[in-house]
Amino acid sequence: MKLLVDERLLRPIRPTRSFKVLSYPSGMTVSTHTLKMVSTLLRRHRRERATRWRRLTPGRQALLVVAHLRTGDTYAQLACGFKVGTSTVYRYLREAIDLLAAMAPTLEQAMQVAARKAFVIIDGTLLRIDRVGMASGYDRGFYSGKHKCHGLNVQVIADPVGRLVWISPPLPGARHDMGAAREHGIIDALTEYAIPAAGDTAYQGAGPTVAVPQRRRRLDPDTGRYRPLSVNQKAVNAAHARRRGPGERVNAELKTWKVLRKIRSSPNQAAALIAAVQTLMIANT
């Protein structure tokens, strides 16, 4: 069930002699299940810690967290909208994100789920970032030559109908999908559990369980041109692309969480943010 939440999130403008702080209502679409899940988690955490009175109730804090993840609003915007300080917003967000990240499944748990599927789809995607150190060429590891921007590489595993199974921790965006999958242990896990998987040409040579499309043939030494694929090979590639389609839908759904469209926090803190979104995505499937 989807619920349209109309929350007065204030967009502050720097006050000067000529300008005033203006506000307007902002709407976002969230599921009631997500709000109840997050608020219950926060309420249980407060009860365990026996914390004193807080500015926001667990339900309001849950709305604050979902608003940040869904709309990507800054701390200053959320502070004005919920009438609290920016430091309070930071503490509330870090508390909830860490709790949600701790609930994210491990690779072993994901493989146990994947073993019950007919096959899985593996694909890599890039999450853009805008905060990375430039000194001594540190930013080069995060620059993706394919996408022409800085970002983080994450590996996504989906089931045949496009439901999320697992998202890997992030790696610098310059990493190739195949190298990232091996570093996370995905290829070895698929082989160990004998799980059929479908991937693109980036996973060429990933093992007997990972099916990839037919690659274009090498240059013909006689004509100096690439040998075209046969009709049967093109038909195989078309069928393979249809199998991988739901995996692309999961990548698109991942980026509907606007906080991940361009991560403004430090890349070192992005792992908890991605894991928290993963927990909410799996909870809604």
TrEMBL record:
Stored Pfam families:
DDE_Tnp_4, HTH_Tnp_4
Q: Which GO terms describe its molecular function?
A: metal ion binding
Keyword Metal-binding found: yes
All residue ranges annotated as the Transposase Helix-turn-helix domain in the record: 54-105
Q: Which cofactor does it need?
A: a divalent metal cation
Residues forming the DDE Tnp4 domain are 122-279
Keywords, ordered alphabetically? Metal-binding
* Designated name of the protein: DDE superfamily endonuclease
